[in-house]
Amino acid sequence: MAETIFTKIVAGDIPCQRVFENEHVFAFLDINPLAEGHTLVIPKRAVARLEDLPAEELAAVTAVLPQLAKRILAATGAAAYNVLLNNGSEAGQEVQHVHFHIIPRKKGDGLGFRWNKKQVTAEELTALAERIAAQG
């Protein structure tokens, strides 16, 4: 895997505001936050896509998400938060290194997301479920 801005941050080559670190995980404040306390949580090893991250490393990252979210809520006074992962450039991933965003939310913060729901039939859902299940 090629070096990313995140591997340089983990190595200490680029400064950051670190909020958590252990053997497998590094978390730091986003320099272009959507909200106060917007934090990025990454595996220390550079892996571009979620499906390529070994289960043990994914477990290490996701195990710290709840405790970090709780700390962020307490520090910011936010009432809620979003956890977001963009996986692939078509999904908005800008840095090709798996990273979860913890984004604190307050009522009236102006943040949001758009759900463009599609109308599908039960038959279409059944066919799709069968195609997905067949991939295993």
Briefly say what this structure is:
The protein has about 140 residues and is α+β, with helices and mostly antiparallel strands. The protein contains 3 helices and 5 strands.
What's the topology here?
Layout: H1 5-11, E1 18-21, E2 25-29, E3 39-43, H2 55-76, E4 80-85, E5 100-105, H3 122-134
Distance between the termini: 26 Å
CATH C-level name: Alpha Beta
The helix fraction, in percent, is 25-40%
Identify the CATH homologous superfamily: HIT-like
- As laid out across the biggest beta sheet, the strand order is 1-2-3-5-4
Radius of gyration: 17 Å
Query: Helix-strand pattern, N to C?
Result: HEEEHEEH
Given as residue ranges, the uncertain stretches (5+ residues, pLDDT < 50) are none
Can you offer a commentary on this structure?
The structure is a single chain. By secondary structure, this protein is of the alpha+beta class. The protein has one domain: HIT family, subunit A. It is built from 3 helices and 5 strands, in the order αβββαββα. The protein has a 5-stranded antiparallel sheet, covered by helices on one side. A hairpin with a 3-residue loop joins strand 1 and strand 2. The longest helix has 22 residues, at 55-76.
